[in-house]
């Protein structure tokens, strides 16, 4: 076993690799750009080496800088994580020539599988089911349209190099092929330095299922079961789980056998993933092979009990696999939610800034349930414009799928983040979605279930009662503290009013609050003042804490808390509400307060997120129609097309390609 490993990556995956290396007694070296000088992975590693300015092309993608950092620190191995250089044959080859161990597959396997076009040819030769498509070089948009029409719509336009949803578009018509081909090539060039794309048939209602494989340098290859990654947005995975609710034992065995056959065909010797697109009838076709550790590897670790990073270290050091296929048993169910820095209420546009609050749920293993949080950030740290927007990977494991989903719901309800926008409200809503809970999935799930975009659901029924009761309890606790403050005016003693009015949007509840035998009781009253239902709560919540945790009717409950005037914002089980707590007289007066009307529609195009202007698609004086492309803004490695919301005339363009914009910066004015 080598003695020191350099992690050629950043963020949560660098931190996750460091944890296993530390447990195995392997010293670690972090590398960092100017933007990551104070990052968590730098703090966790035994040593750290600066490798350049923030853009990845000038730091994390610089092979020679990584090798020089190895020489400087004496690192005898490099783990690439995922992304960046992890699937670059040139990187593995350069390390080998420098006498440094690459903790990953051999260069031949990377070359064979890293190129999506060549990998499909290799898969077909190995007897693996493949999707109909065109694997040759496509010269221009006209050729792309001709090929798409020969295959039949819909088609998938995909970058040959790389992954992670970059350089990927689905097209249902010739117009969409032309635009998708251009954007896919541009994204592929920017992300991977390779603008080749290919086209294949897009399977209707497809499911994304992948097989985890593990090989050594002695010809042994096994698979560790499957993961389902069908919950995707813009071709990027949002939720993953293991095993898949679609597969039965027979289909799992067939997919696993094909994945192993493909890995053996290219002498694969590390952890890797063979991805398939599956039909609802359990038919499946080879999609691609990722010759690296996957982002979603924790769910496989949770259901198998196998540390994949440890296995990669052992294989790279020349050890034989200590596991046989018959040793692999899947136990329970695991779910992973990717927590992103993005605004789900603004079409999931990226969000950057400082994490003024970052309080993830406690990692634990109790009563058959595991909560795991892989992260690379900390409270007070910054989310940078230059890298992937992932904040954390929250994982839960339980004996059943329903148990893992329930545990995830609880964990999301107690995950507090402030300072930036994030997708936890969306993840929490997904966990409550009936179709998700039933396992009726496809990669079009989000587009189909949220066609108009995402909005937070107003609380209803039992959830509304819970929120109103907790808000009342919080108000009661805060009032108790206020009454205990010294130096108050001398006079009539403050009379505590047990009756309150809880206002949730257009709904009002009249409640009474009492304390008895260590619990708080909130009674909901009818309009006539008669008791209707009782909610009992116990909690040790203190003012200022971002999460209310306790029990309601004896069941454990958590919800996020944010203070506002005369009340709180509470979020629970995918629902959220501003809840105002008034005395009866205050409620009467509040009804008389004027409500601000929404602002008129703007006559300007505002930048919806911090980003870099890639292209301006219109000119001053041009008449545009609703839906027409106006400009392209790049943020966090994704190109976003901003379109006209209504028919208008472009009056003045205020930016140019290459400009860096802040959120809500004016891009152009309309007449």
From TrEMBL:
Protein keywords: ATP-binding, Biotin, Ligase, Lipid degradation, Lipid metabolism, Magnesium, Manganese, Metal-binding, Nucleotide-binding
Domain Lipoyl-binding: 596-671
Ranges of residues in domain Biotin carboxylation: 1-451
Catalytic activity: propanoyl-CoA + hydrogencarbonate + ATP = (S)-methylmalonyl-CoA + ADP + phosphate + H(+)
EC number: 6.4.1.3
Record-annotated ATP-grasp domain positions: 120-317
Gene3D superfamilies linked: 2.40.50.100, 3.30.700.30, ATP-grasp fold, B domain
Alphabetized InterPro entries for the sequence: ATP-grasp (IPR011761), BC-like_N (IPR005481), Biotin_BS (IPR001882), Biotin_carboxylase_complex (IPR050856), Biotin_carboxylation_dom (IPR011764), Biotin_COase_C (IPR005482), Biotin_lipoyl (IPR000089), CPAse_ATP-bd (IPR005479)
Pathway: Metabolic intermediate metabolism; propanoyl-CoA degradation; succinyl-CoA from propanoyl-CoA: step 1/3
Required cofactor names: biotin
EC primary class: ligase
Cited NCBIfam families: PRK08591.1
The protein, known as: propionyl-CoA carboxylase
């Amino acid at each position: 076993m080598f003695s020191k490993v350099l992690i050629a990556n950043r963020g949560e995956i660098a931190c996750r690799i460091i944890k296993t290396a530390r447990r195995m007694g392997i010293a670690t070296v972090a590398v960092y750009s100017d933007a990551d000088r104070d990052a968590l992975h730098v703090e966790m590693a035994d040593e750290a080496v600066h490798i350049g300015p923030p853009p990845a092309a000038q730091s994390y993608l610089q092979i020679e800088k990584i090798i020089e950092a190895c020489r400087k620190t004496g690192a005898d191995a490099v783990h690439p994580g995922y992304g960046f250089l992890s699937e670059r044959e040139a990187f593995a080859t350069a390390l080998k020539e420098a006498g440094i161990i690459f903790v990953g597959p051999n260069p031949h396997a990377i070359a064979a599988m890293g190129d999506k076009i060549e990998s499909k040819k290799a898969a077909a030769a190995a007897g693996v089911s493949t999707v109909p498509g065109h694997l040759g070089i496509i010269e221009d948009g006209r050729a792309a349209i001709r090929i798409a029409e020969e295959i039949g719509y819909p088609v998938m336009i995909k970058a040959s190099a790389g992954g992670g949803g970059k350089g990927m578009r689905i097209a249902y018509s010739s117009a969409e092929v032309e635009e998708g081909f251009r954007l896919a090539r541009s994204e592929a060039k920017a992300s991977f330095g390779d603008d080749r794309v290919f086209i294949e048939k897009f399977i209707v209602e497809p499911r994304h299922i992948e097989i985890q494989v593990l090989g050594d340098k002695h010809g042994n290859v096994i698979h560790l079961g499957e993961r389902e990654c069908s919950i995707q947005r813009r071709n990027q995975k949002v939720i993953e789980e293991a095993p898949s609710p679609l597969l039965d034992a027979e289909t799992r065995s067939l997919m696993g056998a094909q994945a192993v056959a493909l890995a053996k065909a290219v002498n694969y010797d590390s952890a890797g993933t063979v991805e398939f697109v599956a039909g609802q009838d359990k038919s499946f076709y080879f999609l691609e092979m990722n010759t690296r550790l996957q982002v979603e590897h924790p769910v496989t670790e949770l259901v198998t009990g196998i540390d994949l990073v440890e296995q990669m270290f052992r294989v790279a050091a020349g050890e034989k696999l200590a596991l046989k296929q018959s040793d692999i048993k899947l136990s329970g169910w695991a779910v992973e939610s990717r927590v992103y820095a993005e605004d789900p209420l603004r079409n999931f546009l990226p969000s950057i800034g400082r994490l003024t609050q970052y309080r993830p749920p406690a990692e634990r293993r109790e009563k058959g349930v595991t909560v795991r949080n892989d992260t690379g950030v900390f409270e007070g740290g910054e989310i940078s414009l230059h890298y992937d927007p992932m904040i954390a990977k929250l994982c839960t494991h339980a004996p059943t799928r329903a148990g893992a989903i329930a545990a995830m719901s609880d964990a999301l309800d107690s995950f507090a983040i402030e300072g930036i926008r994030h997708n936890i409200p969306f993840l929490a809503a997904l966990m409550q979605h009936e179709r998700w809970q039933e396992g009726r999935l496809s990669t079009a799930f989000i587009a189909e279930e949220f066609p108009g975009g995402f909005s937070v659901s107003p609380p209803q029924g039992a959830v509304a009662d819970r929120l109103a009761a907790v808000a009342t309890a919080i108000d009661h606790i805060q009032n108790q503290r206020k009454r205990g403050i010294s130096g108050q005016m001398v006079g009539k003693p403050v009379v505590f009013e047990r009756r309150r009015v809880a206002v949730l949007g257009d709904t009002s509840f009249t409640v009474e609050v009492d304390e008895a035998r260590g619990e708080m009781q909130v009674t909901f009253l009818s309009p006539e003042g008669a008791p209707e239902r009782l909610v009992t709560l116990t909690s040790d919540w203190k003012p200022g804490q971002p999460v209310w945790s306790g029990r309601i009717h004896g069941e454990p409950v958590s919800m996020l808390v944010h203070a506002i005037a005369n009340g709180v914002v509470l979020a629970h089980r995918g629902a959220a509400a501003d809840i105002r707590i008034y005395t009866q007289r205050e409620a009467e007066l509040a009804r008389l307060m004027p409500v601000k009307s929404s602002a008129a529609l703007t006559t300007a195009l505002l930048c919806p997120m911090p980003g870099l202007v890639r292209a301006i698609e219109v000119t001053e004086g041009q008449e545009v129609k609703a839906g027409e492309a106006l400009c392209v803004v790049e943020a966090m490695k994704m190109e976003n097309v901003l379109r006209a919301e209504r028919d208008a005339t472009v009056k003045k363009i205020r930016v140019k390609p290459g400009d860096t914009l802040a959120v809500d910066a004016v891009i152009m004015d309309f007449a």
